[in-house]
Amino acid sequence: xELAKITRQGLVSIAILVAVLWGCLLTExxxxxxxxxxxxxxxxxxxxxxxxxxxxxxxxPAPAHRAPSIRPSLG
Length: 75
Description:
Shape: rod-shaped
Low-confidence stretches: none
Radius of gyration: 36 Å
């Protein structure tokens, strides 16, 4: 007594859908990995540019600021 029977066409369609699902999963993992690598590279480049901007050599040193001398006022 059969309640339901899976035909050959049904099995083929299930196999195709499973293959498409696995393809989507593998593609998603690849895209996620690539995005993570690109994010790390961008952050590294930002850190490098900030470091490079902060280490710029100066050609002439800035003049030293002298504290104003306190002179007694004669009045």
